[in-house]
Amino acid sequence: MKVKPVNHAKAAEEFLDDAPHLTFHDERLWDMRQKRDQQMHLLPEWQELRSRASAIKEHTLANLPEYLEQFEANAKKNGIHVHWAADGAEHNRIVGEILEKHGAKSLIKSKSMVTEECDMRAYLEPRGVTVTETDLGERIQQLDGQMPSHIVVPAVHKLVPDVAKIFAKNYNTDPNDDSPQSLAESQRMAARPVILTADSGMTGGNFLVAETGTFVVCTNEGNADLSATVPNLHIATLGIERIVPRMADMGVFIRLLSRSALGSPITQYTTHFRGPQKGGEMHIVLVDNGRSARLGMEEFWTSLKCIRCGACMNTCPVYRRSGGLSYGAVYSGPIGAIIDPTFNERKYSTLPFASTMNGSCTNVCPVKINIHEQLYKWRRVLVEHHELPFVKREIMHMAGKLMGQPTLYRTAINGTEVALSTLPRFVLYNWLNPWGKHRELPHPVKQTFHTWYKQNRLKNKKESQGGKA
Amino acid sequence: MKIGLFIPCYIDAFYPNAGIATLELLEKLGQDVEYPMDQTCCGQPMANSGCNSDAAAAEALFVRNFAKYDAIVMPSGSCTHHVRDNFDAIPQTEEVKHVRKNTFELVEFLHDILKVEEFPWAEFPHKVGLHNSCGTLRALRTASMSELGEPYFSKPMDLLTKVKGISFATPKRPDECCGFGGTFSVTEEAVSARMGLDKVKDHYQAGAEYIVSADTSCTMHQQGCAERGGVPIRFIHIAEILNGARS
């Protein structure tokens, strides 16, 4: 089956047509960026923290097998069952088997990008397991049948009235009552009984600590703690790149994570899970799903340093004006645009081009991933792998030839001197027409710089040289 | 010092005044400047689109045109960034290395190399908003970047504050990209145009009569957005102000 590339531009255009949503989205995320800046200014050691975080991650990734084995051994000592999943299918099968063994039918879970990667709900639900997201934003997205649009604030593209409509459909509430208080209350009333009667819980996780065999989950709603501790069965799913060597490293990452994400000093809940509760069972599924392959990509392996803070999304002027769903992928925004092509090069071939490569993402990244440089490199790779649309490829080929031949180029440019009200012929191809959709063309000029120089400098030079002779 | 002047294609065709101002300014400052007539493009549009091999002919021609100069100066941040940081579609000979090492964007050339202290002829009695292109800001580092919280510095502001009568408007999001992005302006035209409109509105609401920039590609795009969006603001290249333009 031929995969069609995601049409980010078209989805973005639709997003832009809705002024109230666009304005809120842009301003809300920009506000998060500003709060992040304020936190940065409060910590004189901010840049040092970034450098350390980057160095720790690079060291760990360079020694990944050793640290993972250390983690596995220590986690087992803590009474945790450790599973390895090579891909999404294996992950889902493992989770399904654990649930089946326990006869579990109701799974409550906190937010996990890895389970999104694996499309786990779609696997479990036909097998008779009801999966309930407990993170508010994620729950809204689940009820609406959408992917999260942001890795930290999954429903940030929605306004309160949208949520009121979704809740009305699912919880029988008043669709016109859009006070945040009553919406939160109706979510609480709907979720609590599910949480209290669930027979299994699942969390994601932010960090695996190799030396202790423990893992750390950061949330602001406390929902991960409920998901992990109310049922007796706790399954945690984490990508293998989430590992750090030492507990002391948390002193670097915890300080960076929420400051970068929301601009708050720390998440409301930072829970260290050390083993199963009394009479309970704890499982960890360590997921590869393309990560080992990415680790082998010389130009792109450092994208594995990502701690999923979303700072690059908040600062990205393109993301803020196109919305996460326009990327058509589990991971959106700048980090998505460099990770997604490793999952499916053709499908996500458009994403590295959905950027002005302005570089703001790289500057805010708490682990110093050179995101905009990787976008640039991805473009080269995608062209080499023939993933650029034919027309654009041809235009670049023709432009490249033209730019190498001054005489031909001058003839093309001089078209403007004859027909000054139009762009030069070589830019008049249909491909370039969209320029004028929301923008005026540059004004016509009397003469090009080239002509001016010939008349005002070369002529004088020749005359003065002639005079001397 | 013999200077080779590079005038990017869009300045040549649409904004010759920015090119003329650059040349005249360098001459006023006593520099020996030449404009090689066979120049076309630095290769950036092809390279930024990922089509690096298609940039080879332009890059080779660029080197043929400019290898003989001590310094290559251009009124464009993004072209300078390309030559300095990404110009690798051709073999890296000594000549190529010389060209890449000695290519300067106009503001950094005036500020860092010539260390110009005054522009006695310059007077611009208007309120201006400075647009730092992402190329000058985050690649050439001609100003401090808000994301890093580093101590304030700004080479273009250092130069502009030497101009008589000028005053400045500060937009709310000074470091936000304007959305030009080369071919991005066409392939993602809706997002691009919206970013441009937001940008010019930000400057206008801050009270700017003009947006001044060292990058005409950004302002070509912004001007198009402002005119279509009905934002009454004007655009000028920094070279024109420093060269003594009054409006």
Automatic annotation (TrEMBL), chain A:
InterPro entries registered for this protein in UniProt: 4Fe4S_Fe-S-bd (IPR017896), 4Fe4S_Fe_S_CS (IPR017900), FTHF_cligase-like_sf (IPR024185), Helical_ferredxn (IPR009051), LUD_dom (IPR003741), LutB/LldF (IPR004452), NagB/RpiA_transferase-like (IPR037171)
Keywords: 4Fe-4S, Electron transport, Iron, Iron-sulfur, Metal-binding, Repeat, Transport
Name listed for the protein in its UniProt record: Iron-sulfur binding oxidoreductase
PROSITE patterns referenced in this protein's UniProt entry, alphabetically: 4FE4S_FER_1 (PS00198), 4FE4S_FER_2 (PS51379)
Source organism of this protein record: Acetobacter malorum DSM 14337
Family annotation (Gene3D superfamilies): Alpha-helical ferredoxin, NagB/RpiA/CoA transferase-like
UniProt domain 4Fe-4S ferredoxin-type: residue ranges: 297-318
Presence of keyword Repeat: yes
UniProtKB/TrEMBL annotation, chain B:
GO annotation, cellular component aspect: cytosol
GO molecular function: oxidoreductase activity
Domain Cysteine-rich: 4-83, 128-221
Highest rank taxon of the organism: Bacteria
Protein name: Fe-S oxidoreductase
Organism field: Acetobacter malorum
